[in-house]
Amino acid sequence: MRIVIVDENAGRASIIEEGLSQEPGGEVFVLSNRQGLLSQIDEIKPDIVLIDLGNPSRDVLEEYFTVSRALARPIAMFVDQSNDEQIAASIDAGVSAYVVDGLKSHRIKSVLDLAVRRFEAFSRLQDELADAKGKLADRDVVDKAKRIMMDSKGVSEPEAYAELRRKAMSSNKRIAQIAEAVVTAHELLGDS
Amino acid sequence: MATRELTIGFLPLVDACLPILAKEHGFAEEEGLNLRFVKDVSWATVLDRLLYGHTDAAHMLAPLAISTRLGRGRPAQDLVAPFVLGLNGNAVTLSNALADKVRASGQFDDPALLGARLKTVAEDAKAAGQRLRFGVVHRYSSHNYKLRYWLAACGIRPDEDVEIQTVAPPFVADSLASGEIDGACVGEPWNSVCVERGVGTIVLATAQIWRRGVEKVLAMRESVLEAKRAETEALIRAMRKAGKHFVNAANWDRNAQILAGPDYLGADEALVRRAISDRLILQHGGAPVVFPDFMFQYSEAANFPWVSQAKWIYSQMARWDHLEFDESDAEKAARTFRPDVYRAALQGSGDDLPSANAKVEGSVTQATQIGALQGSITLSKNSFFDGRTFDPDAVKSYLTSLP
């Protein structure tokens, strides 16, 4: 079975590729370049094409499949031959699929299930990364706020932190939000 | 305080303006409605999100809503359109080399004259074995249908004499620059982006092809419309207020700024303003050309979903998909548009409400007052450039009369 993955995000494509290459008899091709996309697909003659929902080439690809239906080797939309629940799951995960007519449905299902799981895994990774970045940024701003308070109020570092924490709890906000307010106020009012 | 909520999908185009401005100027809030937006970069994804419940409603190509209802390209789904988001607002942009060959003036030329000149170039190109290639945003788009209507009426057969292919709007300028295409029919700000980059020249507004051609609609699943009827009607009222605000010249700057923002179009504010103000720069470094009603989002009950518009779209679908005319499909297409919902939403508001559901499209040649349930509606010229009219009760004979 020849599987094409169209994804401009190389990191995600490799995660999906790795997952799908475990599929017995699966041969995976990753296309990440918009230029010449259709001619490459033409050459590869895939059995199934996976494309992420955020890819701007989707309409071009869908047009190509619609036209190819009239040709010798019809390609079906995934939605033609699958159950609604599975489509909903793939849309939720951010992937859509196009399948050449005649591919057995249980094979489609296993490929798609795998792709969905891999897409989900990738967005989890991304969330974790964003989260980690956010935490780093939070730590930066809290450090800045502490320094400002130590300088201007002459308090120790633990005291500065305790004060930020108290204010956060009493106003039902995150410490980073309070710290940010301190830093902003300092920038506006301070002499630096 | 807004307690109800609707999530709306859109593509970053100027004609997504009404729901966006309904939120940003507080018109939705006044109706007790909170709006959330989901931005995407392909119509396929906007449609998927609508069909699988990520969104309640979507900014959508009118022909795509109808093709989805008819099951063209995909299994049929119950889409309906209770509101037209606007008329026209698209343009034909050609590569500078091609534009130089066919333009007669530095303004918008007469479409028939421009088409006659293009025909000569297209024939030469075909004879040389290199047919002219045009990009459209989607197979089921008014861009495709208006471009084809114009070409065919000028004696250029769209499928034989030239090639028409799908190009995503953000890539139109690149495709023109690389010579992948010779021209495109696309919405704003993408024509202006081509001009700004110096890779293309705007030669024709779609409003010149059909003075009052239907463009995007607010599409919903029928089941969602029923379940969220109150929210939908509130949205319709809010979007009418947004439309009134949008067409007021005093608000052009502010609205261009809002729409150009990163959450919405993520575009150059100055370019967005050109479309909003009907003042386009056609060629790199040129002076703005005023083209009244380049976009038409409010007056003359522009948002009313005339079923005759839906039927015209069906006629073009049958024409270019080479389908036999089918009365039940024509009816199904017509029922995609829901004037009843539009009327119910605005009943008692004092806003203009047509009393009929259909009209003979393209038949108004001078200001004509039409029947109104409330308000007063005077339609101005709405003709097709070739002078044909479209009678929604005679689709079959219309189809046989077309070139």
What does this structure look like?
The complex is a heterodimer of chains A (192) and B (403). With 192 residues, chain A is an alpha/beta fold. Chain A has 7 helices and 5 strands; from the N terminus they run βαβαβαβαβααα. Chain A has a 5-stranded mixed sheet with strand order 2-1-3-5-4, sandwiched between helices. Chain A starts with a strand and ends with a helix. Chain B has 403 residues and is of the alpha/beta class. Chain B contains 18 helices and 18 strands. Chain B has a 5-stranded mixed sheet with strand order 2-1-3-11-4, sandwiched between helices. A 5-stranded mixed sheet of chain B has the order 8-7-9-6-10. In chain B, strands 5-14 form a two-stranded antiparallel sheet. In chain B, helix 1 crosses helix 12 and helix 4 packs across helix 15. The mean pLDDT of chain B is 96. The chains are: A alpha/beta (192), B alpha/beta (403). Chains A and B meet through helix 3 and helix 4 of A and helix 3 of B.
Entry summary:
The complex is a heterodimer of chains A (192) and B (403). By secondary structure, chain A is of the alpha/beta class.
Report the principal-axis shape of chain A.
elongated
Helix count from the secondary structure assignment of chain B: 18
Low-confidence stretches of chain A: none
SSE pattern of chain A: EHEHEHEHEHHH
Mean pLDDT across every amino acid position of chain B: 96
| Biggest sheet: strand arrangement of chain A | 2-1-3-5-4
Structural class of chain B: alpha/beta
β-strand percent of chain A reads 5-15%
**Beta-strand residue percentage of chain B:** 15-25%
The quaternary state of the protein chains shown equals heterodimer
Share of helical residues of chain A? 55-70%
Largest interface in this structure: A-B, 20 and 23 residues
**Could you say which structural class the secondary elements and strand pairing of chain A correspond to?**
alpha/beta
Largest sheet data of chain B: 5 strands, mixed
